[in-house]
Amino acid sequence: MIIESNIELLGTAAPFSQQIVRQELSQARTSIDEAMAAGPAHRAFIESLPDLWRTDPDVQIFSRLLYLKPGWYPLGPHYHFDWGGQNASDGSPVETIMVLHGEASQTEFILGPLEQSEPSAVEPRGHRRRPGRDQWDSQVAAGLASGSLKQWFLEPNQQIRFDSRTLHRARPAKTAGWRVLIRAIRGLTNQVADPGRFTTCRNGYIPITDEQRTRYAPYQDR
């Protein structure tokens, strides 16, 4: 099955200082009314949403605030589709509108046609079985080499729309600082009730050099 992995650039949001960003409150799939109390960046984002989104009682706000240092990841850096590529109850893709505040880490999106296996049944925790990470790594590498796929990086304050067919991954921070990624989600069914580890307050760091691996070894999970 061929799917199109795309994003739509909606515009640029007003920037917020690091002093404001650091005080925003992460939201684990909360209602719009509840998320309005999460801080000025959340309020501005919600007020910018289309009328159909703001008046839809099923739209959820999903955000995460992190402090990152150079080389740290906001989450595991593997290519993925949000919600495992799940569709809404009417069969359409789950839609997301998202904005990034803070310059520490820019999400990488892959744009273009992708070959995806047919989705299988939903697992007990609500996540679909999906192809292994190695498949996406090799498919993306081949697509970038041939020119059929392109990389696109989310810049600070950019507001975009994408859906559960859009392949993307986290990238390491290039600078130190606070970062809040705010999403509005439309069409997500109750089958995915657990927001997962994405909502936990953790910073990801992957050692690369031999010296970094040696220094990091005592802190790794056994």
Describe, in plain words, how this protein is organized in 3D.
- The chain is an alpha+beta fold and 222 residues long.
- It has one domain (2-114, 132-219): Jelly Rolls (Sandwich), CATH 2.60.120.
- The protein is 19% helix and 29% strand.
- It contains six helices and twelve strands.
- The protein has helices at 18-21, 32-35, 40-48, 51-54, 133-146, 210-216; strands spanning 2-5, 8-12, 28-31, 60-68, 72-73, 95-101, 108-115, 150-153, 158-163, 167-169, 177-186, 204-205.
- The strands form three sheets. It has a six-stranded antiparallel beta sheet.
- It is globular.
- The chain starts with a strand and ends in a 6-residue tail after the last helix.
A few lines on this structure:
This protein has one domain: Sandwich (Jelly Rolls), CATH 2.60.120.
Write the layout of secondary structure elements.
Elements: E1 2-5, E2 8-12, H1 18-21, E3 28-31, H2 32-35, H3 40-48, H4 51-54, E4 60-68, E5 72-73, E6 95-101, E7 108-115, H5 133-146, E8 150-153, E9 158-163, E10 167-169, E11 177-186, E12 204-205, H6 210-216
Antiparallel strand pairs: 1-7, 2-9, 3-4, 4-11, 5-12, 6-9, 6-11, 7-8, 7-10
Give structural attributes:
6 helices; six-stranded antiparallel beta sheet; Jelly Rolls; 222 residues; four-stranded antiparallel beta sheet; alpha+beta; Phytanoyl-CoA dioxygenase (PhyH); single chain
Order of helices and strands: EEHEHHHEEEEHEEEEEH
Strand order of the largest sheet: 2-9-6-11-4-3
So, CATH architecture? Sandwich
Please count the helical segments.
Answer: 6
Described by strand count, sense and barrel closure, the largest sheet is: 6 strands, antiparallel
Total strands: the figure is 12
Radius of gyration: 18 Å
Strand content: 25-35%
Kindly name the structural category: alpha+beta
How many discrete domains? 1
Q: What proportion of the residues is helical, as a percent range?
A: 10-25%
Low-confidence stretches are 120-130
Distance N to C terminus: 39 Å
- The CATH topology comes to Jelly Rolls
Label the overall shape: globular
The average pLDDT score comes to 84
Q: Can you identify the CATH class?
A: Mainly Beta
